[in-house]
């Protein structure tokens, strides 16, 4: 990995993940004040999908079955707490995400589990490979969570009692 000390890279990536988790908590708390739209549901996973460009670098590549396992762990295990804590409510003819007191704790808990798994996995694969694996895990988690949100949103809007959303 060039001239970067792996220990510093590891510390930096952990601090970066903590910073990102805190930013997500902050953004999510602010988002509950605005109505939910289809665009707001799907923009995060679409924006995140640009991260797949990291796999153009040979140092990040690994077997396809590793990617499938990471995606499925994100889809079935890591998305579950987010799905359980996401609820919508109707106000003024629009749909809003309800604030969840547990959401911040869930995100911090997921970050803790992710960090512990990262420590374990870094013993067996390189830092770029573990970064790629955890990216795929997070992508599976986000896509499943947002797919759930989309289904819930569509069910609420199909009832006909809401104003049309852009």
Task: Give a quick set of tags describing it.
166 residues; elongated; mainly alpha
Question: In words, what does this structure look like?
Answer:
Helix content is about 65%, strand content about 5%. The protein is built from five helices and two strands, in the order H-H-H-E-E-H-H. It has helices spanning about 5-30, 40-50, 65-85, 105-120, 125-155; strands spanning about 90, 95. A hairpin with a 2-residue loop joins strand 1 and strand 2. Helix 2 packs antiparallel against helix 5 (about 125-155) and helix 3 packs across helix 5 (about 125-155). The longest helix is centred in the C-terminal third of the chain and has 31 residues, at about 125-155. The termini are far apart. The mean pLDDT is about 85.
Strand and helix layout:
Elements: H1 6-31, H2 38-48, H3 64-84, E1 88-91, E2 94-97, H4 103-121, H5 127-157
Antiparallel strand pairs: 1-2
Helix pairs in contact: 1-4, 2-5, 3-5
């Amino acid at each position: 990995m060039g001239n970067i000390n792996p220990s510093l890279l590891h510390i930096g990536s952990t601090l970066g993940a903590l910073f990102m988790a805190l930013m997500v908590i902050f953004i999510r708390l602010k988002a509950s004040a605005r109505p939910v739209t289809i665009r707001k549901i799907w923009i995060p996973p679409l924006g995140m999908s640009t991260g797949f460009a990291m796999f153009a670098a040979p140092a990040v590549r690994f077997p396809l079955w590793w990617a499938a396992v990471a995606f499925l762990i994100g889809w079935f295990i890591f998305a579950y707490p987010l799905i359980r804590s996401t609820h919508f409510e109707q106000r003024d003819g629009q749909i809003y995400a309800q604030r969840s007191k547990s959401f911040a704790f869930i995100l911090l808990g997921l970050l803790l589990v992710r960090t512990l798994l990262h420590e374990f996995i870094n013993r067996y694969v390189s830092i770029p490979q573990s970064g790629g694996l955890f990216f795929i895990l997070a992508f599976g988690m986000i896509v499943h969570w947002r797919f759930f949100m989309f289904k819930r949103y569509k069910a609420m809007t199909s009832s006909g009692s809401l104003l049309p959303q852009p």
